[in-house]
Structure of Laccase:
Amino acid sequence: MARRSWFLCFALALVACSARAAVVEHTFNVGNFSISQLCQPATTITAVNRRLPGPTIHVHEGDTVVVHVNNNSPYNITVHWHGLFQRGTQWADGPEMVTQCPIRPGHSYTYRYNASGQEGTLWWHAHSSMLRATVHGAIVIKPRNGEQGYPFPKPDKEEIIILGEWWNRNVFDLARDAFLSGTPMDPADAYTINGKPGDMYNCSGGNHKRRTYKLKVQSNLTYLLRIINAGVNTPMFFKVAAHNFTVVAADASYTTPYKTNVIVVAPGQTVDALIVTDATPSRRYYMVASPYESAVPNPGFRRTMATGIVEYAGAPRTAARRRPLMARMPAFTDKSTAHRFLSNLTALILPGRPTVPLAVDTSMFVTIGLGTAACRKEQTSCDPNQTVFAASMNNASFVLPTSMSLLEAHYMNVSGVYTRDFPDEPPLAFDYTKPPSDMDDITTKSTKVKTVAYNATVEVVLQNTALVALESHPMHLHGHNFFVLAQGFGNYDNNTAVKRYNLVNPQERNTLAVPPGGWAVIRFVANNPGMWIMHCHFDAHLPIGLAMAFEVQNGPTAETALPLPPADFPQC
Ligand SMILES: *[C@@H]1O[C@H](CO)[C@@H](O)[C@H](O)[C@H]1NC(C)=O
Ligand SMILES: *[C@@H]1O[C@H](CO)[C@@H](O)[C@H](O)[C@H]1NC(C)=O
Ligand SMILES: *[C@@H]1O[C@H](CO)[C@@H](O)[C@H](O)[C@H]1NC(C)=O
Ligand SMILES: *[C@@H]1O[C@H](CO)[C@@H](O)[C@H](O)[C@H]1NC(C)=O
Ligand SMILES: *[C@@H]1O[C@H](CO)[C@@H](O)[C@H](O)[C@H]1NC(C)=O
Ligand SMILES: *[C@@H]1O[C@H](CO)[C@@H](O)[C@H](O)[C@H]1NC(C)=O
Ligand SMILES: *[C@@H]1O[C@H](CO)[C@@H](O)[C@H](O)[C@H]1NC(C)=O
Ligand SMILES: *[C@@H]1O[C@H](CO)[C@@H](O)[C@H](O)[C@H]1NC(C)=O
Ligand SMILES: *[C@@H]1O[C@H](CO)[C@@H](O)[C@H](O)[C@H]1NC(C)=O
Ligand SMILES: *[C@@H]1O[C@H](CO)[C@@H](O)[C@H](O)[C@H]1NC(C)=O
Ligand SMILES: *[C@@H]1O[C@H](CO)[C@@H](O)[C@H](O)[C@H]1NC(C)=O
Ligand SMILES: *[C@@H]1O[C@H](CO)[C@@H](O)[C@H](O)[C@H]1NC(C)=O
Ligand SMILES: [Cu+2]
C-alpha cells in the first residue's frame, strides 16, 4: 500500500540532489479484525489493514507523507502522528476534538504533512476512545542522506520493537464502561511484543509462531532496535538476556550514546538502541518487556511479562530444544532503576540542532494527579451524591469540547468552546507528596487553555500529587519537543532544583515520565501556532481529565501563522 515517488531532481550539483524530497503515500483501511490471543475465543478488534501492529511508515527527513484513512470500523476515529511537529500542517495532528472532529464510520479523510526537522523513531496511533490499543504502528524517519547520516556507526540491521497491551475484549466497550462506572480501568490481560504475548502465558494450544515474536540474528553484527511503547497504561522495562544496549536516541532526538542493560519506556515514548550480537549462538535468548508499576496505592495490574526470542543463525539444533535464556528483570515497582535510566539520558549536541533556550518568558508550576469529581449525568451507574474517579492539572479536570475542535474554535474566534484561564499555579499549595488526610481531592471539569505568544520560551514544573494515588504519569506535548532540565522526588524546591538544571545537553523529548511522587522541569519554545494538548499518555487518565492545552498565537509572518484548514476537513 506504500508508494514512493521521487520529485524531479533538476539541480546541477549532487548535493542538491541529495536534498530531494519524496512523497510517501499509504492507505489505512481501519476496520474489524478478528484475532485470537492467549487461547481465548477470537476477539474482534479495530485494526489498520488487518494487522497488529499496523503498517510502518518509512520516510526520509523532509519527505511528504500522505495517508488515506478509510474508516470501515463501527467507531469514530482519528489518527495522531505522535511526535511529529506538524509545523505548517497543524490541522493534520489528529487528536479528536482538539484538532479535528472524528472521521465517522463509512467516511474517509486524507492526512498530509511533512516529516521535517526531526529524525528517528516515532509512531502513529488512533486518538479517539481507547482504539489506539490496537490502531498503531511505527514511523521511521531516516536522515535525508540515508543511514550514512546517523551520528553513530551505521548498524548492520534495523528492527522495530513495538510494546503493547492486550485485552481479551473490545477496548471501546472497556473504556466506555470505565468512564460510565467512574472507576479505574481493568488491567490488560497481557503485554505484547510486536503484537504477540510470548511464552509466559497460560496458553498451551495455539500456534507458537503466532504468539511469540522471534528475531533471527546473525553473529557479530550491530542491530538498531527501534523500541516503541504503544501500551495503553503501562510503562515497561525492556531487556535482552545476555546482551547490553547502547541508547542512541529517544523520542526521535539523538542522545549521547548511553550503555545500559535495561531500557525503560513509558507509553508514548520511543528508544533507539544498538545491540551487538556477540553472545554464544548455541543458545536462544529471551527479549522481555515487563511492567513498571509506580502507583501507590496500586489499583492492581497484570503481574506477567511479554517475551520474544532472539535466535542466532547457524545455531546448532540443540539450541532450539533448550529453553531460551531468561533475562533478570527489575522488580515491577523498581522506581530507582526506572529513574536512573530516565534521568541519565542526555542530548547529543549536533550543529544546527536547537539547544535549550536560556531565557524564560512564561513560567508555570503545574500539579498533575488523580482525584474525584462529581458524577456526570451520563454516568448512570453512580447516584447523584457520589463522586467518580477523575484526574486534573492544577486542579482543573479537562473535558474535550463536543461541538467543534479547539483548533477550529481558535481559528474562527468562536467563544464558549474553551476558556483562556488555565492557571499558572495550583489554587492551593500543600505538601503534594503527603497531602493532609482531610485534603479535598474533588476537582471540577472545564476546558481551560494557556495562551502563549508565538516564539515564547515556556518553562513548566510538573509536580505529581499523591491525592488518591501517586504515580509516574507520562506527559506528552503535541506539536513540540521539550528539553528536560531536571527531575526529582518529593516536592519541587526551586532553591535546590535550579542549581541542578542541565542547561548544556538536556534530553529532548515529546513524552516525559514524571517521577512518581516527584517533579520534572521542562522548557520549550512555542514556535508552532495552534492548539496543542499536553496530556497523560495513559488512556486510563486522559478521558478523566489529565490534560490541558496550549493556545500558541500566530507569529508575524505567513510562515509563522496557522494556515487555512484543508477544504475537506471533517466536520462534527
Ligand atoms: C465490527 O465489529 C463490531 C463489534 O464487534 C460489530 O458490531 C460490527 O457489526 C462489525 N462490523 C462489521 C462490518 O463486521
Ligand atoms: C512540504 O514539503 C513540500 C515538498 O518539499 C513543500 O512543497 C511544502 O511547502 C512543504 N509544506 C510545508 C507546510 O512545509
Ligand atoms: C496461569 O494459571 C495459573 C493457575 O490458574 C495462575 O496462577 C497464573 O497466574 C496464570 N498465569 C498467567 C500468566 O496468567
Ligand atoms: C564472532 O566474533 C568472535 C570474537 O571475535 C569470534 O570468536 C566468532 O567466531 C565470531 N562469530 C562469527 C559467526 O563470525
Ligand atoms: C554488559 O555491561 C555490564 C556492565 O558494563 C558488563 O559487566 C557485562 O559484561 C556486559 N554484558 C555483555 C553481555 O556485554
Ligand atoms: C545516573 O543515575 C544515577 C542514579 O540516579 C546517578 O547517581 C548518576 O549520577 C547518573 N549519571 C549520569 C551520567 O547522569
Ligand atoms: C445525598 O445527599 C443528600 C443531601 O446531602 C442526602 O440527604 C442524601 O441522603 C444523600 N444520598 C446518598 C445516597 O448518599
Ligand atoms: C479572528 O480574530 C483575529 C483577531 O481579532 C482576526 O485577525 C481574524 O481574522 C479572525 N478570524 C476569523 C476567521 O474570523
Ligand atoms: C480543587 O477545587 C475544588 C473546587 O472545584 C476545591 O473544593 C478543592 O479544594 C480544590 N483542591 C485542590 C487540591 O486545590
Ligand atoms: C524566534 O526566536 C528566535 C530565537 O530567539 C529568533 O531568532 C527569531 O527571530 C524569533 N522569530 C520570530 C518570528 O519572532
Ligand atoms: C525561587 O522562587 C522564588 C519565588 O518565586 C523566587 O523569589 C526565588 O528567586 C527563586 N529562587 C531561585 C533560586 O530561583
Ligand atoms: C461520532 O462523531 C459525531 C460527529 O462528531 C458525533 O455526532 C457522534 O456522537 C460521535 N459518535 C460517538 C459514538 O461518539
Ligand atoms: Cu499522543
In short: The pocket of 2-acetamido-2-deoxy-beta-D-glucopyranose (ligand 1) is lined by residues 32, 44, 74 (CB under 6 Å). The first strand starts at residue 3 and ends at 6.
